[in-house]
Amino acid sequence: MRAKGLLLTALSLPAVAALGVLMLRTDRAIATDDPNTVEVELCDSETKVTVPKPANPTPEDGQAISDALMAQWRRSHPERDWVAEELERHTLVPPADNSGLVGRGQGATYGQISKEDVLVWQNETVKLAAEGSRVFHSGDELGSTIAVSCDMCHPHAANTHPETYPKFQVQLGRVALLRDMINWCIEHPVRGPKLAADDPKMRALEGYILAQRKGKALDYGRR
Amino acid sequence: MARPRFTSIETKHYAEREALYRALPHLDRRSFLRVSAAAAAAALGAGVRYHPHSFLTIDVAQAAVDHSFRIAYISDSHLYDRTVNERFVRQLLRAVDDINALDPQPDFVLYGGDLAQLGQRPELDLGAQILKAVKAPVRMMVGEHDWYLDMGEHWRSLFGEPTYSFEHKGVRVIVLNSVVEKDFWTARGMTPMQRMQTVAGLDNGVQSPFSVGDEQRAWLKKDLEKVSSKTPLLVFSHSPLYKLYKPWNFWTDDAEQVQAILKRFARVTVVHGHTHQLLTNRIGNIHFHGMLSTAWPWPYAPQGMPPLTIQMNRADPFNPADGLGDGEVLVHADGLVDKVYNLWNRDPVSVRRTYMTSGGKKDVPSKPNLASY
Fold it and tell me: Do A158 and B370 touch (CB under 8 A)?
């Protein structure tokens, strides 16, 4: 659901408006019992609204229908702006700025780096860290049986020191990676089920913690 | 061939300390000092870095002679309902046991706020029930976790008004509600629980900064109107009454205005909760001390640390109650205080009035072996 929501938020409002007009033109309008109204359906095949049937459809009618569809989609997707909302709640250290690369080549196959490339890199990277922040701050997402979340001891991921791993951890009896300590915390202070190394939540947690320590020199093995 | 059994530094340290404590009742003070010095030397010989706060009973015993009265504190227990999380409940019970074991008993026990985690009735009721087991009289202070579900309604029904003052053995004691936040919830259409959960997140940037507010500042001014500037003040606030680190609300927005009201008094001590750590500051005549939590330790703020603060060792995640505890405030005849941090599973730390008045030159508490990252 979330992935689909993001896809749609990525589309601009005029694009959705155009889509509405397009749907009318391609007969995605479905007749209703009332001859004066028509039901229109969004390209997600889920979102539907019933609107007055225009006698001679104008671009304004198309816009009104698109707006109605968008409003309906927003209502049914309360988490649509989840990245922005998460960043408002919990500030995130921004990723590296790659805008200086725009216009440079990246090899014959890919052509030149465009603004869109840089934007996609930025957005996707922030999205992973924001998802990590969401999990980090939620006992429910972490599966805690005692309503404890990571931020209770590590506000803004403070004192997580990912730059010090790998290091030998006496209590674990082996060299620990960041994910081993994340899992240790999930199992003990948080009292939840541990995550597989490639679990999307583990990847997101690692992403968030590493993002928050941007600029710290790697210093593996440090006590 | 059998290898000799390895004994860790920690095990040796605890064994030596245990031996010392067992020997204590049989010693006069002179022998006590001799034995403790010998034990310290033995520890040094065994390769342990000598830690001046090991065997701190000496400090506490001496302090006990000349202070005029003492107060104990428990703070930041963050209780959920007992069916949700029994760990925080057990930790508060441990603090109550600590305080009840003090001999002599403190004149009163100050509860430093954040008794509940989400301000819910079962949480506050449970806390009130546990605190009834404290033998000494209990004085309550409110924290943001107690308040923002029902805006203090249930807390007040249990404990009364959050702002009050009283005279105790020549000291004016003032308790404030320093966690007043501007309305961020109405415009966002938040439910009371959403408001509470927003405030409950230390690093949640949607909430407002803490303040004491106009109303309480006016009250404070009036309350102190007839109090002589020679009277020592002991002020309790949940947040530190200075500006340390805004993103975590280690902060009071109108701190300067409150400090201005306290300025004409020669001896002022502010003891605060919220920061869950050993924290020391001095601004002019005002000495500030933090309180420990019984629930979880906070890391130190990444910037703005007061120069007088000597950080406690960073908490060991493998030791569930590490960095937590309770403590005491020893009030001397001159109105200045020694602040005792009774860290569970570690040696206690005393931040003495002489450390404060000498600007950090005398009686320096021990530096941490493992500082923050």
Answer: no
**Contact state of A88 with B372 under an 8 Å Cβ cutoff:** no
Report DSSP state, residue A196.
P
* Rounded CA separation B239/A27 (Å): 63
Domain that holds residue B119: 67-357
Does residue B117 form part of some domain?
Answer: yes
Is A208 buried (19+), middle (13-18) or exposed (0-12) by CB count in 10 A?
A: buried
Name the CATH superfamily for A85-212.
Cytochrome c-like domain (1.10.760.10)
- Closest partner residue to A88 among B206, B248, B320, by Cβ? B206
3-state SS, residue B108: strand
Tell me: do B124 and B22 sit in the same domain: no
Does the beta carbon of B320 lie under 8 angstroms from any beta carbon of chain A? yes
Distance of CA A47 to the CA centre of its chain: 21
User: Could you tell me which residues come within 8 angstroms of residue B13 by beta carbon, excluding any fewer than 6 positions away?
Assistant: B43, B48, B54
pLDDT by residue for chain A (223 residues), tens digit each? 344 444 444 444 444 444 444 444 444 677 777 888 889 999 888 899 998 888 888 999 889 888 989 888 988 888 889 999 999 999 999 999 999 999 998 777 778 999 999 999 999 999 999 999 999 999 999 999 999 999 999 999 999 999 999 999 998 999 999 999 999 999 999 999 999 999 999 999 999 999 999 999 999 999 8
B73 plus B20 within the same structural domain: no
How many interchain CB pairs under 8 A, A with B?
A: 64
Do B260 and B342 share a domain, yes or no? yes
Examine the domain organization and report whether B96 and B174 are in the same domain: yes
* The pair of three-digit structure tokens given for residue B132, joined into one six-digit string: 């009834």
CB contact under 8 A, A147 and B373: no
Which DSSP state fits B230? Answer: T
Same domain, B284 and B346: yes
Let me know whether B14 and B120 are in one domain.
no
| B6 in contact with chain A, both atoms CB, cutoff 8 A | no
Q: Does B122 touch chain A (CB under 8 A)?
A: no
CATH number, position B180: 3.60.21.10
Backbone phi, psi, residue B43, to 5°:
-65, -40
**Could you tell me which residues are beta bridge partners of residue B236?**
B175, B271
Note whether B84 contacts A: Cβ–Cβ < 8 A: yes
**Residue ranges per domain, chain A?**
2-76, 85-212
B230 and B177 co-located in one domain = yes
State how far residue B166 is from chain A, nearest Cα, in angstroms: 34
